[in-house]
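Recall that a protein's primary structure is simply its ordered list of amino acids. Everything else, from secondary elements to tertiary packing, is in principle encoded there. The following example makes that idea concrete.
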Amino acid sequence: MLGGASAAWALGLRPAILNDRVEVVQPVGHRLRSRPELRVRRDRLVVGEVVQTTFGPATSAARTAFDLARRGGLLRSVAALDAMLRVTGVGIEEVFAVATAHPGVRGLRLAAQAMPLADSRSESPRESMLRVVLVRAELTAPVPQFDVRDCGRFVARLDLA
């Protein structure tokens, strides 16, 4: 089934994090090999972590968000989480539930750092990354998509305020 960035694409996310390779998740014990155009990940999936898409079976939005949160460093991890939350409507509590179901997996520590920083209001990877940098610098957490009003009349919308 589709996994990682390929599952994110099948679920409606068209992010800059995608590359040319199709990524699939295969249950542990199977023998499909990676090829230049195909990346095979072997992983344990639990009930509810597979959904049917127009492109075939894929990991669920919560599982896909969890998988993306486990890769690429904190900034990319949060950016991927933000995008998955925004596009798919999955809640961060559902991603936490998937993490709880997979103790000890590779990248769990990174995902645990990224999940509390996720915010579905972020509208671009750079915006997510800047927000994380500001929070880690111990500045007040910026508010994404902040409406500026003058006497109740809309004036502008700021990416971060």
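Strands lie at 22-27, 38-43, 50-53, 56-59, 144-150, 153-160. Residues 4-120 form one domain.
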